[in-house]
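Hi there,

I know you've been waiting on this one. I reran it after we fixed the sequence typo, so this is the corrected version. Both the input and the resulting structure follow.
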Amino acid sequence: MNQAKQTKIYQNILCYGLIVIVSLLSCYLFFLGGISNQDDIYFHLTQSYDVYYGLKNGFFGLSTNHLAMGAFGYNTYLFYGPFPHYLVAFTYLFTEWMGSSLIGCYKFVVMMSMIVSGIYTYLLGMKVSIGSKAISVAGAAIYILSPYRIFCIFCRGAFAESIGMAFIPMLFYGLYRILNDEKFYVSPFVNTVLGVVLLVLSHPFTALLTVIFAVIYLLCNIIKIIHIFKRKHTVVFTLCSMVLIIGLVFFYVMPTLQAKNSGIYIVCDSGSVWTTLEHVASSTNSSRSFSGFLNNEWISGQISNGTWVETYSLNYLIIGGVIGLFSAVLMMIADYFIQKAPKSKYYRFIVDLIVLFLMPLIIYRRLEVILGLAVYYLVFILVMILKDHKEIEKAGDKKEHIYKNPDIYFLIISSIVLLVFIFKADVWKYVPSIFYQCQFAWREWSLFNFFVDFLIIYCFSYLNQTKFKGTKYAVAALSMLNIVFFSFNQAYIEKRVKYELDGGYEYSLVDEEFTSNVRHEGAMNEYLPLVFSDETYTSKFSNSLYKSVRYALDTQSNFITTPDKYNSSTYCPRSLEGKATVKATVLKTPEVTLSASVSEANTLIQIPQFYYDGYQVKLINQDTNSSSTMDAIATDGLVSFKVAEAGNYTVEVKYTGTKAYRLGKYLFVVSLVGLIALGSTGLALRKKNEKEDHPENSLTKNLKL
């Protein structure tokens, strides 16, 4: 291996290693014991454990709950993106033997998402900057620490949304390569497919927003699209990619759309779940607070009251950030002169380290500022030791002028448009109602953070092509944003101070007992049948289980946790029409086996489980040893079924999912195999092209000619 290749390997190790370090430092609160209370954290922890419990008990597809809300069988995944919870559950399932915990696996998944987003931002930066590792690493660190994302992870508890943000760079990396690679490669298509699919399966609204802007991005580069579609294989692989995306998300998207269009669930009522124009427009008033970045109202309203350390005033926090930035500038100035001293390579970075941390350690020891300076220092060293300019010089004039690049205009205009929608209520009346699914205008901070970072990378890439001698220091100065983010991200300050004052965080163990105690899911039980939120609804059947279930929901008590409770006088399956004696013999939510003695034909039997399309009922006649299968029907929002003939029956009720889901499972497997085949084809084509481009092969061809 030649020296140039060795140097490249070492530099790559340093860059990826730094991305991992920044990702772990960005989640430093996770290294404290337990996990803090957040807006939605209880929901995500219990859902993750519920999925784990289901996997452990043989439920390998999307299913209703098994423990949370008891045997009522609340169905989160008919609507909610399943990937984040299933990823935690699988991680726990495969590491349980090592002594892992559900909370530990939850933290691990978040940290891995930070690393993935950092790597893909870095890879995107490498393409945009024509191989500048320094700019790419600085850009990756900025996206990892973006305020709204940190706020979602530690304050909002928006687990699925934060995971979804990890795949925005993946999608745009794929698209950028498709548009700009000089030769045809399959890997960008694979990245694009994965980016879209993982976004959809993690957080549908973030996916919708990102995909729409991705399409606009492609349209802004229509000339490049026309050019690349003239290449061999491009049309075929584009169509294959579109088919694979549909096949990989069909099992989740189609049942969700069908359920939303059914109108029989609370989530279908826009007013109840805050998806109206009025609610989204009014949410713009709080967009500043939910940016995740320091704001005066937050300090005055929370940190200044009696539950917080008195020194954490607004001025105290601002002074900390200023000291951190001043120390960074002072270090750069010192470094400029130190490197000119004799044999400075032996002590340059040591002196830099002393200068950087001298003031913060002596007069101001706030952890967040120290961590921000640590990230800055690591990026600074990397920037100084890399030799990016050589690769850029080799690229020559391949890069077009900045004012001719449509990407720049796309990023600037898109960022402005997003800001307008984040802060201006009136503009929301001009968009289709599907965008109201965001519930809050400030969810668009996620894409705004990425676009601004993408734009910064672009601008510094052009700077790197100039003859400006201070380019390295300019790139190092860019990494000062990490000091700002660490110092002023709301989540860091709030959650660390809370930990120190309360002596720990609220959640330290999530297990079967913890999850079985869940009596409420989501902000308003939005995935329940709509009849359970209708105050005027009355069943036409006097002995319907509706009243008992409704009372349990209203009082959040007396949920079913055992077969005995299932068979109690309150919840025992019963005949609403006709006559029958019914008893549960085996309970494995959402599956239940019943013993039914039916004395009248066409008897309607109801069980205490929420109705969702996808329940199937198998009747096994013990008298004739015959069997039949039917779809369950909804009566008062609960599962019910009709028995046509009198007799003694064993009844097996199972949740198999909708017809679209059952078809989607097979499409998913076929598409997954197809995606692997697509990637394998790409590797084969790449090896073939490399072989043809090899000098020896070129010489052989010329000799033959």
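Quick highlight: Confidence is low (pLDDT under 50) at residues 698-705.

Best,
R. S.
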